[in-house]
């Protein structure tokens, strides 16, 4: 059926929950617009048919976070498959309404997509469940809570976002107050506005995203490249794959894996020139430092390795025991880094999320864990041939602030002595990152003060030289000397720190 | 009113002083020294009496060393115990140097500068020429020798010789991990202090002495020397201030240039090959030595030891001045060209990466 508002060409994503009327809304909207309608269940079935263990991914939601993160490569494969097939449907149909939990995230890099969220009051949903499943109110309420919780976990696992964040959507419709057909009618007019029309730029972006997804999927399926931490970008038929230097041996295989990839004209595989190791006990869910770290990595053409340190102690028998506050799947008995192919890696959930956040910033990143103290950390860093910089965050969180500082200084000294690597703290980077405008003002103030001093010195030359030559001032010579001894380093500091900041801004320091 | 010893600072002289500081700063950041080998003779070429040039330069060094040693200290490159043991000897050396300089200052001649002493200027120039020509030749020999033989690391023969002497009391320095006789430490410290107080140059003597005579690692030698320079600078500034031989105007103007140049010079070390750094260093120092050597006949003439016409006096002064500035400017240009080329290259690479959607 052709749209009554003929001529509009759009891609609409509908984010729906349980018993909110989202599916009905999406289907009604597609019918009225004459668009194709695709749901996540359809693509999920296709993924299962292609051999992707979707069930295993879904079961991971009930496992501990440490288990979930083992499935990172599988998750990436799932998302790459989904994206590729969604874009294929878009190509076939021209216009589409996609409904799922967070379909807008699959196409997050594509402009002009109309992103709709459908919600409903709890009472409305409880009634819907009662009618559909024939259960009492209390059970219906618990059912909705369980399903909502699972959905949030699923979306967080896949995309690391908060589903309820309104900034992710262009419109939110509450179907408790509206009939579905009327809600669909209301949105049709929005689909017609120029901001949500398919443009040539949008089409090019879709092509690039589809090519990158296909490449990512193929690399994730191939045994030789499935474990590599890499970033895939496509641009007009050219595929760029960037790898962490830890996976140098994979680089040679990538072109072979991507041979004859549909739509791919050329493959370029590059290794990051070095790596920055970001070391701390715990990573935040979305560290505010990520954009600055990613920017630093891009400037240095480096990857970032997120190294989590797990403190250990020795009990009376001399056996190494891991701090009880850490949840583990398996405990390493060797101490030091757990390498790929050895005992399963234990990673903090937030460590993996930080990695995802960095990859969203187009930064190749990897994760690892080191057990033990300073010796083990230094030993682990020593194995990193390509490490350019070590960034140290909070260590020994259970210790006092003085203890943490001592640990940091000791570790910094050992790394400098043994490995000759530069070390920065996250607080230093935060200060630098936040200082932008403030630095500019400080530089300006310093230079103004210096200019004032220079002007005064040149204007009162006679008086200054008379300090030493005037016989009547001999009695206060000691005062003059003390003033000089204070003035000179103060001036040097004032001016020197200003020029230092200026050259840092110019990235020459 | 500007008094006898202090030159009149007009705009032209002030700009020249700033440029002097800038060149000295670039060279100092590049080579890792304080820059006095250029700034001291440079100031003398501007007409500043030698003693005043040394006093002003050592005061300038004091402020810079105070800031610079912080970074080295944080990296753990400072052997404070060794530094403190060397302090006493170096303080005595500086005191001796100040006494000699100020005594010679009282011997008046025709005057080379505004109101200085040719005797003091001659003495400073001779010490400068003698010591720094040895340093320059050693640096050039070292740079060329490495290319031919591929040897790594400094020679330890001298250090081992002194260790074998075993002159008590022997002191162990844990950061450097060496045992040295207190006599050896004191003599080196005395020499370093004397030279710092005489010509304002400390690092060129102190650092090689620590490496070759004490046998300590290069990074620790550089860091410890900077730690020492802070105190030597303070003591030197204090002593010269007591003698009334500091021109605060020159100190401030030198900072204006040197604290900009030092960053460019330090950046230059990243983009210039190490062998080239050593060759440039050696050549510049040699040219500074020749520049100072050319001025010596003028002082001899002032003291009545030679007879020169005014034409020749002017020629020697001009040659000395231009030789120094040409050497300094040439060195700075080499560094700046390399810095600018490296920045442009980097900018192109970044732009290319951006166009490919990476970074």
Task: Report what the structure shows.
The complex is a heterodimer of chains A (509) and B (359). Chain A is 50% helix and 16% strand. Chain A has 20 helices and 16 strands. Chain A has helices at 22-33, 40-49, 54-59, 65-68, 72-93, 103-106, 122-133, 137-159, 180-191, 200-221, 248-251, 254-257, 290-300, 349-360, 374-382, 401-419, 426-434, 436-459, 461-469, 477-505; strands spanning 11-15, 36-39, 96-100, 114-119, 171-174, 230-235, 238-243, 266-271, 274-280, 302-310, 312-314, 320-322, 336-337, 365-371, 387-392, 423-425. In chain A, helix 16 (401-419) links the parallel strand 15 (387-392) and strand 16. In chain A, helix 15 packs parallel to helix 16 and helix 18 packs antiparallel against helix 20 (477-505). Chain A is elongated and about 105 Å long. The relative contact order of chain A is 0.08. Mean pLDDT of chain A is 80; it is low at 1-6 and 324-347. Chain B has helices at 11-31, 36-45, 50-74, 80-105, 118-149, 157-165, 182-199, 203-214, 218-242, 248-271, 274-302, 310-355, and strands at residues 170-173, 178-181. In chain B, strand 1 and strand 2 (178-181) form a beta hairpin. The N and C termini of chain B lie far apart (61 Å). The longest helix of chain B has 46 residues, at 310-355. Residues 111-115 and 147-152 of chain B have low confidence and may be disordered. Chain B is built from twelve helices and two strands. Chains A and B meet through strand 6, strand 7, helix 16, helix 18 and helix 19 of A and helix 3, helix 9, helix 10 and helix 12 of B.
Proportion of strand residues of chain B: under 5%
**Shape designation of chain A:** elongated
Q: How many distinct helices of chain B?
A: 12
Helix and strand pattern of chain B: HHHHHHEEHHHHHH
Number of helices of chain A: 20
Q: Which bin fits the share of residues in helices of chain A?
A: 40-55%
Can you count the beta strands of chain B? 2
Largest sheet of chain A: 6 strands, mixed
Structural class, judged by helices and strands of chain B? Answer: mainly alpha
Tertiary shape of chain B: globular
Q: Strand order across the biggest sheet of chain B?
A: 1-2
* Proportion in β-strands of chain A: 15-25%
* Distance from first to last alpha carbon of chain B: 61 Å
The value of Rg of chain B in angstroms is: 21 Å
